[in-house]
Amino acid sequence: MHPAIDSSVLQTTRTQRSLRISGRRRAPCQSLARRLLTISSRLCAILLASWVIGQSVMAQVDVEEHDVIVFYGDSITQGGQYVDLVETWLLASRPEWKGRIYNRGISSETLSGLTEADHKPPRPCALDRFTRDLPPLKPTIIVSCFGMNDGIYHPFDWNRFFAYRDGVLSMLDRSFGEALAEDVIILTPPPFDPYQRKASDLKATHFGYRFPYLNYDDTLGTYSQWLLTLSERDHVHVGDLHGSMNDWLARRREEDVSFHLAPDAVHPNTTGHWLMAMTAAKMLSLQQPDVERVFVPGNSETIYRASTTENVPWFIPDVDEKLLAWHREEGHLPQPAWQADLSELDDEPDDRQIRLTANNEEVWLGTLGQLRDGINLPSLEIPPLKARAEKLHQAVATRRKIEYQAWRRSFAPQKETPPKPEETPEAVADQLSQLATIIEVQRLPVIINWVIELR
């Protein structure tokens, strides 16, 4: 392992200067200044050789009862699938949690303030809206995911990197100093997939979103390695999306070279968002809800009954089945065991076949030995639990969509035509109130009537 990079090398005096990128002269972000450094190729090599590749997931954050969590990012966060999953899992995992999660992602943005020459309009800088969007929510935890756009789809360049570095450091300073957050979680950017690269401008004369640099993921990899070093700061936590998603891509492409997580090379599909959510959930110390240990009283020679109250399990979207299986095998998907106390069946052999039903529906066939060892409820298709998890996720996703659209309308240019009936403030408030009630009902534990039948 290489020695840690001297943090003093990465410090810069902030000055108000502009930066010429691909022929376009762009003013820096408001309240963000940067110093352009000219570094010899020899020094570049020395610095690059000294990066420290951190662990994929660093120190975690414990979510408290009233914590407000704000996700702050670009179009990947705006898409929001991973944000919806995290909130659904948090509601299921922490019945005592009464906080909220807000999505404050906007497409095309950067923290660096850079833009391609042909990007019309120029890319906005997320720091320009920080004061408007984050402090009013009084966040306890800010989850930041930027970087995909910050290298503007070019090969690595030190000036662009320093602009990104300054933007990230400014975001951290303002998160603690202005938004008064207690913790900041930084997610490294998801990978850029050259196999899925789409060039919309075949006559481009320079790199950019319309004609990305083929190995742009190398740029994101360098950015991610630096982000991992920020976990050394107090109350800053870093989750390595870039590393974990690339690891799964490499694993799956050993047997399926066309496998991908981002159909357009940039924006993750459902499986990609699942991987993002898993990393974010681990950073927030989330795990599957506990399940009851069941004592099954005998009431006949072959039929045993029990009733339990089970928490809603994690909702699992339609993702890559091999990924799901791998998560379970490796223990990355926390799954508490449901174990029946079958002391009255001590004389029965472990290989005795049994049938398990839940609320009159068959959910499992196996052996008595397997049941004695404990079975993982989340891996079973238990209709009432699965249905509850699906309804909870649907309500969370619907609320997020309505809330997000209302937020975007709040600062959009005013239209001359009146708003649609469902978009008036009163209608939005009514919809959100109804969804809040549905969410509270759907997160409640579920009574399950079990029947164990010896066969």
From TrEMBL:
Stretch forming the signal peptide: none
GO molecular function: phosphatidylcholine lysophospholipase activity
Record Pfam families: Lipase_GDSL_2 (PF13472)
SGNH hydrolase-type esterase domain ranges (all copies): 71-274
Organism: Planctopirus hydrillae
Gene3D superfamilies: SGNH hydrolase
Record protein name field: SGNH hydrolase-type esterase domain-containing protein
Gene Ontology terms: biological process: lipid metabolic process
Coiled coil region boundaries: none
